[in-house]
Amino acid sequence: QMYAVGKGRPPQTLRTILKRPFTSAQPQSGFSPALKGRDVTSYRLNSPTVFVKVGPWLASPAKPQRNGNASRVFVRELCRRDGKLTAAVAGGKIMPLHGVHCIDPNGIDADVLTAILNSSVVAAHVRTHASSFTKVDFQRITIRELRELPIPSAAVVVKRRERLGLLPQDNRQLQLLRAIAKQSRALRSHPQIEDEKVLDEMIKRLF
Q: For residue 13, which of 38, 60, 89, 166 sits 20 to 30 Å off, Cα-Cα?
């Protein structure tokens, strides 16, 4: 949340709300690009249309990112009626706004995590486990539900063992993870339905 009377330092006033000095529709020095829920598509982010001057003057300042400029994964809060999530890798300088959950990958490749979140396996889990699916109008995924999603242990364990030099380069799971990451990155610039289907089949092999 960027604006609210009485919030921020110094406290915002009605004049602040009306003038909206901390947001812009155009890039400006000292402003960071920001994305709303509708700007997040599968594997790809739309160009920012909002730029925010981040600081304590905002009503709810964003928490600092743990890994500086490292890649994160943005997940759209609204999911499809079939349970499919919408996730994409985001650079460290992009700020998530309302309708976007932000995940800081820990011990897992951001592109691999994005592919897992966009997969039909995770969609099936969301359909049967997310409480929002008892509602009629909107299906939303919560932070708590994201934390409870099934993530294949191989995606984490193999990554850790590779980093420690404990895996041979011809390890099958390592090769699969590399192929998944490569395909996921390719979909950022060249989204193709058939390529997404191929990647989804690769993700099934991880589970």
A: 38
Tell me the C-alpha distance between 91 and 151, whole Å: 22
CA atoms within 13 A on the CB side of 3: 12
Find where tokens 């400006």 sit.
28
Q: What are phi and psi of 14, to 5 degrees?
A: -60, -35
| Residue 203 token pair | 């993700």
Amino acid (1-letter code) at residue 111: D
Q: What is the DSSP string of 63-122?
A: PPPTTTT--EEEEESB--TT----EEEE-TTPEE-TTEEEE--SSS-HHHHHHHHTSHHH
Q: How many other C-beta atoms can be found within 10 angstroms of the C-beta atom of residue 196?
A: 18
Please give the structure tokens belonging to residue 94.
């992009």
CB 61 within 8 A of CB 1: no
pLDDT tens digits for range 73-124:
999 999 998 899 999 999 878 999 989 999 998 889 999 999 999 999 999 9
Instruction: Give kind and range of the element (H or E) at residue 54.
Output: none
